[in-house]
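Cross-posting from the modeling subforum.

Setting up a comparison between two proteins and wanted a second pair of eyes on the formatting. Protein 1 (sequence, then structure tokens):
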Amino acid sequence: MAAYLIADTQLTDPEAYEEYKRKARPLAEQHGGEYVVRGGDMTLKESELWSPSRLVVVRFPSVEKARAFYESPEYQQALGISRRSARRTVVIVEGV
């Protein structure tokens, strides 16, 4: 069953975040990930619980593949760049 990694990102250093994006994408793809949303225009319809800033959605073949990507040593190195250049909320959710 597919899984989705969903990240809401508020950039604090957009230039540095570009380096994170260059490193993260090939790592996600190595784990079977496919970017289906990466930033882009949003139309917020309801925000009682959450008001997203910038959304990224990556589809993986399974929760296990998504977790393997996120927990991989290579991604953890790239994640350090993200943590210095953005504030984020990230979830992995099982899909249909």
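Protein 2 (same layout):
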Amino acid sequence: MTPPAVIQGLVIYLFASGLVFFLGCGGVWLSVWLMVRGVAGWKRRLTVVVCLLGLILISLSAAPLPYWYYGLACTLTIAWLVVEHIKRVEPVRWTSRLRRATVMIWLAGAISEIPFQIAPTLNANGSPPLFVIADSITAGVGEREAVTWPELIRRHQQIAIHDYSRMGAGVIAGCAQADRLPDAPGIVLIEIGGNDMLGTTSLTEFERGLDRLLTRVRDRDRTVLMFELPLPPLCNEYGRIQRRVAARHRVPLVPKRLLIEVLTWPGNTLDSIHLTQAGHDHMAAVVWKLIRSAFR
């Protein structure tokens, strides 16, 4: 894989995983620290540039935090920058207050995002069946030589797996997949929503469809996990909806960094989305690490 392609994959990973949000917060914190240190001249101007770049990274990170939070955090940060440059000799009281407020508001955002970067842990449950509701990332695009990751896990771990994934599936098709689940407990793993976000599904349709899907899979004594959607810049609302509906149904989200890691790893995809055999191998390892504690 060529160096430009590797760099492109790294950039996509940082943004779609949400990790660039923490980098943006780091830029703002660094700017405050440099101002406290009393930098002057071109260093002071550079500090402002670093802060603004941090805000740009945050805005493009698509971290699905509330609108009011972004409004408040950006207002405090801009107010701090303005006050820093209208004071003359000694730091005034408002400068010190705004420095602390700027640091704390972005720290609060970072802390609220950290749980979504931590993979959930399943309790030991004997040997439950695994039901997979997913789109073409799992189903593939018809490449006959590829063994999909659910089949790989079934072969290597010898557990019962029911794979209902279909090409092009969105939340509405996911509901049809859920209707095929047997009337039995087990683990349900959902990897769906990318076609809705990149297609023509409206936000209202997406929320209604996802709510119906989770309602159906939660009908029985099942453990449900759902991959959080890797979000392109400015697609925050799909993430907000997914988190809101998942919380409503008490469904833990699998960190999006795990899925985007598979999609951006060199040689793992045919077209940046659909998996090669190496991609299915990688995905099988990721999923098994996620669920294996349930099979002790």
